[in-house]
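Lab notebook, bench 4. The sequencing result for the construct came back, and we need a structural model before the next group meeting so we can plan mutations. Quick request posted to the team channel:

Model the 3D structure of this chain.
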Amino acid sequence: MFWMLLTDGAPEEPDTGDWDALCATPGPQQVLAALFQELGHIGLPRSTSTEVNEDETHRIHTIWLGTNMLGVKVTEIESPQTTAFFMYCTWETFGLVGMKLIWKFKLDRAGQLGYCAFRHEKLECAFDTVEDQQRFSEISQRIIGKVPIFTLLK
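Done. Here's the predicted structure in token form:
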């Protein structure tokens, strides 16, 4: 398994005031749903558990879609006191054939739409083979509309 870092080809980052673009821009959820679908499953697994931890400065949601054998662990961190700060998100896949993804991004608040303005941070992918990387790239390009460019990490 070799680890790669996405250096170009992340989803667009629409302006928080452009509601049409915010609603139409695909993000990690759409890419992962397509990956799960095309790798022989029935799309993104359903939520199986949710946990919320909160202190004075952070509210942390941990959501499991599926399990750690086949699924996605979603971690969202937000301020419990104000929406002036980003919500930080990490989506980590488990059990996908030939690959593992850890996608970190943040969401800006867009008025009544809530936290939805996507801001890419980092996507690290581990692929078993070059063919697995190509399969991810084809699916990502079809969903996002950009060719993903990677550099070798580890």
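Residues 2-152 form one domain.
Will bring this to the meeting.
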